[in-house]
Amino acid sequence: MFPNAQVAFDELGDYSVELGQVKLLKQSPLHLQINAEVEAATVRRFPMVMVEKTAEVLAYGLFRTFIHTKANEVTVTALPVLQTFSDKGTTEKVLKDKSVQVRMTRAQAERVARDVVGVQNLNDLVAKELMGWGWSKPMLNTLGAGGRGVDPAFLKALGLQVNPPK
């Protein structure tokens, strides 16, 4: 158990506070912003990748907050960031107008875990890995592992639009 979500995400090595990948927008009620970083060229070829990455970031912020902290409610804003890599370095374009915000209570998260993902409790969403914690097989399937795409029922539970951005 971590004292707060930013410490958890940073220490788990998934999103860096120092690099600005996760930010505390408000302590009470808890509101976090997490960057949904995607390579621009990939999004041009496969627009649905942005929807999938947004869902993954929201899932991480919502569920990992409840798994790794004592928080009872959290709002997560997924901020899409298109990254372009070149010989000159990396450039980032923040798409503030495409950001998505979801508020969820612990009870709502538990319901989504049971009814949509098909696990018994929030802890069943993660699995111990060699280096920390990763998503469990049921959660990976929900998030579209293997190129299947994110489960539409999960997107609906988060209130996300299923159509790719234009």
Would you write up a description of this structure?
The chain has 166 residues and is an alpha+beta fold. It has one domain (5-155). It has helices spanning 5-11, 40-45, 48-68, 106-117, 137-142, 152-158; strands at 22-26, 31-39, 73-86, 89-94, 100-105, 126-129, 132-135. Strands 1, 2, 3, 4 and 5 form a 5-stranded mixed sheet that branches. A two-stranded antiparallel sheet has the order 6-7. The model has no long low-confidence stretch (mean pLDDT 89).
What labels describe this entry?
5-stranded mixed sheet; two-stranded antiparallel ribbon; 166 residues; 29% strand; alpha+beta
Structural class estimated from helices and strands: alpha+beta
Q: Which assembly state applies to the chains in this document?
A: single chain
The shape, in one word, is globular
Please outline the major beta sheet. 5 strands, mixed
The count of domains is 1
Which H/E pattern describes the elements? HEEHHEEEHEEHH
